[in-house]
Specification:
The chain has 209 residues and is of the alpha+beta class. The chain has seven helices and five strands; from the N terminus they run αββααααββαβα. Keywords: Heme, Iron, Membrane, Metal-binding, Transmembrane, Transmembrane helix.
């Protein structure tokens, strides 16, 4: 009987210690953290990180979650010496907690079936690249194992279609389509791309040193 009590107390101690060390204390430290003002070499000032706008970027983040992107992509550059993130060009510095201060929850991810996306907005800064990549990754990244997301687009054959203001029409490469073919992204695709373009950890922070 005494041994049972000791085992139960031991289990409770482990659970409480884990809760404190892995959840409560890190959350307390994170809540104290705020965006910082950064002064560039040319004297210009900016605040980092910046909150997502609620029109496209925030809905795009929700699309990122709902499509399960987090299951194949991480958003965290590991420190030098812990993997080959720098050699792969996934970032210029390691990620730090302040990079995620306005994200709830942060989509750090653990799987890397695809490349890390912490800086995808800096590596691929154009809407067109991301839209073509979403339509069919083979167009921009031959050999990619990422599935196509063609349901986020409408397709039009022939001459360039007339679209409403603010809506893109992108012609597929002839080598891919074989005939003049245009894709028109739906709002969900534009939202997702707007979010992806916000992903960059390009500012030097004191936290990194």
């Amino acid at each position: 009987m005494n041994r049972v009590v000791v085992i139960i107390l031991g289990i409770l101690a482990v659970v409480i210690a884990s809760l404190l060390g892995l959840v409560i204390v890190p959350n307390w430290q994170f809540e104290e953290m705020q965006p910082v003002e950064i002064v560039s070499a040319d004297g210009s000032q900016t605040v980092y990180p910046v909150a997502l706008d609620r029109w496209r970027e925030a809905p795009g983040r929700e699309m990122y979650r709902s499509l399960g992107c987090i299951y194949c992509h991480s958003q965290q550059v590991r420190p030098e010496g812990f993997g080959a993130d720098f050699e792969r060009g996934w970032g210029q510095r390691r990620s730090v907690p302040r990079d995620y201060v306005l994200q709830s929850p942060p989509y750090l991810g653990t799987m890397r079936t695809g490349p890390d996306l912490a800086n995808i907005g800096a590596r691929q800064p154009t809407e067109q690249w991301h839209l073509l990549h979403l339509y069919d990754p083979q167009i921009t990244s031959i050999g990619s194992t990422m599935p196509p997301f063609k349901f986020l687009f409408e397709k039009h054959l022939g001459s360039e279609p007339t679209t409403s203001p603010g809506t893109l029409a992108i012609q597929l490469p002839n080598a891919y389509a074989g005939q003049p073919t245009w894709i028109i992204p739906k709002k969900e695709a534009m939202d997702l791309v707007a979010y992806l373009l916000t992903l960059h950890q390009k500012h030097d922070l004191e936290d990194v040193k």
